[in-house]
Structures are given as C-alpha cells and as structure tokens.
Amino acid sequence: MTELTPEERIKCAGLAVKNSNGVPVYATANLQVGFNDQVEEMKALEAQGVSGLVFVTKGMCDKPATQYDYLTDLASHTELPIILYEFPGLQPHLMDSVTYGKLVETGKFMGIKDTTCKMPEIEAKIKVQGDSNVLQANIPFLYDAYVAGARGVIATPTSCGAGLFVKMWDEFVKGDLEAAKKTHQHIILLDNAIDSGFMASAKYLCKLQGVNMEWHTRGAHNLGPARLRSIEVFYDYAKAEGIL
Hints:
By secondary structure, the chain is of the alpha/beta class. 49% of the residues lie in helices and 9% in strands. Helix 4 (97-105) runs parallel beside helix 5 (119-127) and helix 9 packs across helix 10. The model has no long low-confidence stretch (mean pLDDT 96).
C-alpha cells in the first residue's frame, strides 16, 4: 500500500467498487503523513463509492491515549464504518485490547485486522470486541481463533484462495468442525505454498487461476524460475485434488 501514490490508491478503490458486483469494498484511508491530507483522501474514497474505510494503527501503539484521540478525531470526519488494521509497515503496530475496546465503544469501529499472531493477544481483543469483528491475519491460528470467537479473516492467501476461506467459514458456522479443520489444513498448504515472496507469489497463483495480471511488485519481492515452478506444481496438485 505504501508503494502506491494517493491517486493510485483512490483509482484502485474505484476500480474495486466498479467490479465488486455488490460486495462491500473497504479502502485504506490514512497512509498519508498529514492529518488534513488523510481527511481529503477519505473524502476522495467516499466519492468513489466505497462502503467503508480502513485505518492503520499508524505506528502509534506505544502511545495509546494519543492514538485513541487521533483515531476518534479522524473518524469524526466520516459517516462510513471503519475497520482498523495493525499494519506492520508502520511500527509499533500492535494495538492493546484496552484501546481497541474503547474504540469499539464509540460505535465507529466495526472491526480490526489483528496481526499479533499470538493466541493470548487475539483472545484479549475478542473479549472486548462486543458487536465488532476481530478479523484474523494469522493462518496457523485461524481455526483456533474462530473457536475463541474471531469473526473473520483478512490475509494475503484470501486473495488467491478465497473459495477455501469461504468454505472453512461456512463449515465452522454450521458446526461441522471436522470439515472446517480439514479445510484449514488445505489453507495451511496454500499459505506455505505462497509464503516466500508472498505478495508476488499470491499474484502469480491468481494468474494461474485465470486472473489476467502479472506477478511483479514495487517491493523487494522477486520470483525466480524455480520459485515460479514450485507455485505451478502446487497449483496443479491443488486443482487435481479439488482444493482450488
């Protein structure tokens, strides 16, 4: 996200809305440095028709009182629902459960993409989530987080294996826990298959599934011939086994 210009982020949000077929689109709104610039980007995203906004924790998690004031002040400039994101690109990024609980109580914050990757921290947020949604980013703990009360997932593998994640969630909420565990095992295979160079590898796996895109990124991700071949082998296996 930080490799895109504000204009590019707004354009991407508009394209997502245009092609969403009614699926809600949430767009990140506070990556710019200046507060007023963030407000202007929020307005531009709203004009694109997004359903909600994402606020990153902005590297302020060591100053919870300051962070609370900042996030609630920014939230006062929109009527759209907001999801928080513990974005590792701006550190310290992990929000404590007390601050999250206070933000939920304002009624403006509908959820958080939790990136702690530790069950005690995940469970602490779940205890204060109220009507909001703790959304899990850690794939190994995904099933455990659901059992603890997490209400969804936001992670890179969902971009190239969405059907698997929908299947697991449906199985879990229906109470078919054995099926959900089995699907989680398939998700672990997917996660491991794209782990190295995961942004580029996820894009390449999307391409193998018929999405017309290249795998290159503006970051440091690079896929050599052997890495590309390993993804192709996984895709052939997953397709033959009905996983993807």
